[in-house]
Amino acid sequence: MENTEKNYNWLYYVIGLFAGMLVTISITFNILWIIFGGILGLIFGGTFLGKVVQRD
Q1: Over its length of 56 residues, how does the chain's per-residue pLDDT go in tens digits?
Q2: What's residue 55's pLDDT?
Q3: 5: left (phi over 0), alpha (psi -120 to 50) or beta
Q4: Is the whole model's pTM more than 0.85, yes or no?
Q5: pLDDT of residue 8
């Protein structure tokens, strides 16, 4: 039988992206800063996934 577990690692990146953008929007409405906040959110999401979440 195959292992049919679903991989939800992408969810951490999406949450990081939206959280970074929302925090930046709450501070400023400049589109360049919003994009920068989204990139920082992606970085933090990847760091959280790699360092905190237990992988098998």
Answers
A1: 567 778 888 999 999 999 999 999 999 999 999 999 999 999 999 999 989 886 65
A2: 66
A3: beta
A4: no
A5: 86
CA 8 to CA 2: how far, in whole Å? 18
Domain-embedded: residue 3: no
Share in percent of the chain as helix, strand, coil (round to 5): 70, 0, 30
Residue 32 located in a structural domain: yes
Tell me whether residue 23 is in a domain.
Answer: yes
- DSSP letter at 53? S
**DSSP helix/strand/coil, 6:** coil
The tally of domains found in the chain comes to: 1
Q: Are 28 and 49 in contact (CB under 8 A)?
A: no
Q: Determine, yes or no, domain membership for 4.
A: no
